[in-house]
Amino acid sequence: MFNLSRVLPGDSGHIAAIDLGSNSFHMIIARWENQQLTLLDKLREPVRMGWGLEADGSLTPEVRERALACLERFGERLRDFPSGSVRAVGTKTLRSIKDSRDFLREAKAKLGHPVEIISGEEEARLIYLGVAHCIAPDNRSRLVADIGGGSTEVILGEGMAPKVKESLSMGCVAMTKRFFADGKVTDKAIKKARIAAGQEIAPVADEYSEHTWDEAIGASGTIKAVAGVCQQAGWSSGEITLKSLEKIIALYAKHGATDLTLDGVSEDRQPVFLGGAIVLAALFENLNIESMVAAEWALREGLLFDLKGRLEDHDIRESSVRALAERFHVNIAKAERVAATSQALLQQVAESWSLDLHDSAQLLRWGAFLYPVGLDISHSDYHKHSAYIVQNVDIAGCSRAEQTQLAALVRCHRKSLRPKHFAEAGTDLMPLAIILRLAHIFHRTRRHSMPEGLALSAKKKKIMLRIPRVWLEANPLTYADLESEARYHSNAGFELQVVPVD
């Protein structure tokens, strides 16, 4: 169900982050000591998953096998890491796979820990988090760019806070695959690649041109390799300029192939380096970047800091959910009441339904804050609007699967309750939907107070709600709502019995 990390990983304090990128898979292991991050181990394998992505959204068997074998090797290193101490995320290629559920299931079996797919916006946030922690703390404004295998993230921020985030569908693998798949480099192919990159940036260029920044920082392999080339060639001490990028591209044009050997570029990065350099040149041209330096930290380190926040109850998802609720003018006081009632009901049935109290309580709380967001669009079938919003907006900290689960819970907080609504999210959310529905009913109007002596019990699909008779007589509309709710439960294969007690 909902994957909420909460248990500190043993006495060692070891945690791990894994980035399933389109070009390489990375894993870093760290320990927290005296409020400092100490990196203990790094592993990287050039899986090139992006090369195996077919036009129909499937992965070639060879690349799939290579990816899973890599995760199995990573899993050997993580064998003694408890649940909640590892966070593994997939980026552009996994976002593009037609049906990723089978792959994620196999990946979890090999790795021993769940793998999440994150949105481009979430990837950008984590990249900025990693870069911001890498440099001296200050409130300077900065542009951060990260060129991955399948996508490029560009973020504007101040200090530790990202302000503008974009994920562009171009990367070193994608660009190479599209324009230099045969390994040949021509002036014509370079020109086409640069135009395509410019077209990808153009829709967001105006937004960035409205801002200024004190420094431009690049992250991850491509940009660090470009900085290495500049330093090795004596063009600079590692600073990147458009002029140096033009020199690199010209060297490839003269050589005529992608197998050009350059000091500063590793052998496994060599085949896709030109594609990455072209993407970076397009960023310089279209965003008017004068110079850029490379940072040592990026997405993986951002994952570690984000995981640390979750483990210490500083979970950004909590503030993201509240911010979304406020954005859509949710009655926060009422949301708190619904959340509190759902927690009280959860306590009574968690054991009989085998629900994890922490995970379930967190998800119910967030559902209580988000189910009304659709009211800003329309009162008619607002639960459907709410589900669409929750599924498609950027909720910082949430993976794609987590937002799908939240959207299903929001969708089913009222009216029809059917297993088909949980097809993607998982039918194990059905008990939580039932709890949220009941909590919502008890708070339809502000004047309601929870009846003393309310008791909820459950045995598999049979649910009994015991309510003081005097309260039901004083609240006939709620009693009618509960009777209607029993019919919805019946359609879903559950039996809800409302029992007045003296």
TrEMBL record:
It is found in: Cell membrane. It is an enzyme of class 3 (hydrolase). Its main location: membrane. It comes from the Bacteria. One of its GO terms (biological process) is polyphosphate catabolic process. Its EC number is 3.6.1.11. Residues 28-307 form the Ppx/GppA phosphatase N-terminal domain. It is a peripheral membrane protein. GO terms for molecular function: exopolyphosphatase activity. GO terms for cellular component: plasma membrane. This is Exopolyphosphatase. It comes from Gilvimarinus xylanilyticus.
